[in-house]
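User: quick one, fold this
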Amino acid sequence: MADQSDAAAFDPESKKTRGSRVATMVGFGFKYLTVLGGVLTFCWAAYTYLDQREMENRLRRIEASKPFLEKQLNLFTEATRVTAFIATSERLEDAKEQVVRF
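Assistant:
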C-alpha cells in the first residue's frame, strides 16, 4: 500500500506542482509569441513589398511623362527667348520676324 502512495506522489500527471504549471504556461507563451512573430514578420514583408511596388509605379509614370515634359520645357524656353527679344528690341522692325514666330 505504501508503494502505491509513493508512486502516486511522484507521478507527474497525478500532482502538478506550481513550478510545472508555470513551465507549461511559459511553454504556451513561447508558442504564441512564435506564431505572433511569424504573423508580424509576414505583415511587415507584405507592407514593404507593396510600398516598393508603389514607388516603382511612381517612377515609371515619371519616366513615361519625361518626353512630354522635355518638349514642353523646350517650347516654353523658346517662347521666353522670343518674348525677351521682342521686349528688348528698340525698333519694331527689328522684331517683326520674332513677332510672327511668337
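User: anything notable?
Assistant: Residues 2-101 form one domain.
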